[in-house]
Amino acid sequence: MKPVARSISRRLCLRGLAAFYAATGLTSARAGGQIEEPLADSVRGALGGAVASSAPPVPEFRDTESRLAYLHWLGAMSVRLRPKKPDFQVRKEFLQTVWYESKRAGLDPGLVLGLIQVESNFRKFAVSRVGARGYMQVMPFWSRLIGDGDPGKLFNMQINLRFGCVILRHYLDRERGDMFMALGRYNGSRGRAEYPNAVQGAARLWFYRSEK
Predict the structure, then answer these.
(1) How deeply is 129 buried, as exposed, middle or buried, from its count of CB atoms within 10 A (0-12, 13-18, 19+)?
(2) What is the pLDDT of residues 39-76, one digit of tens each?
């Protein structure tokens, strides 16, 4: 078989396998291993306040240039996400919420999308073997520590993304800005390279640079 034909055949095979896994639900939730730790009352209060707001995730912009930059990002990410979320309205709402919650927590949306890819492969109702839930594989104990105690709400898109972003921000602050160590905490594998490397590798597919 010629190299070009062999390359095309390999791509078709990989696409077929991806379609099979998506159809049969065999893609597993990878992580969801945050470890419950005692929180100071001040930290618990701050985290609880950060997840409590019920405001809809509607982006606001200081000027037209910022709004146009967001729309360019939204368009580029929508194209990349289409294989995972074919419905345009669902895809748009998801990306808008990711952008909003990432920015709200001071995180790069590309990193958050990479984390979601590794954690749940963009599946809203993913559950890990240890019980972590949703897009960002949030452990149920967080609902008791900083939420209203109802872990079922972690399957709500905005709630899950908000919890995940707030938790990652908390770990990043604890690690004094060291994203490698913060991602390890998020996965419950602090100090090991596999998970941070996987997230940062996936994030390269989602980082956006304007063409200006």
Answers:
(1) exposed
(2) 888 899 999 999 987 677 788 888 999 999 999 999 99
Q: Are 184 and 31 in contact (CB under 8 A)?
A: no
What pTM did the predictor assign?
0.82
Looking from the CA of 208 toward its CB, the CA atoms found within 13 Å total 19
- Does 147 share its domain with 107? yes
- The whole-angstrom separation of Cα 198 and Cα 160 is 21
In a domain, residue 103? The reply is yes
- Give the ranges where the chain is alpha helix by DSSP (H): 3-24, 41-52, 64-81, 88-104, 109-120, 141-146, 157-174, 179-187, 194-203
176 with 80, same domain?
Answer: yes
15 and 104 in a single domain? The answer is no
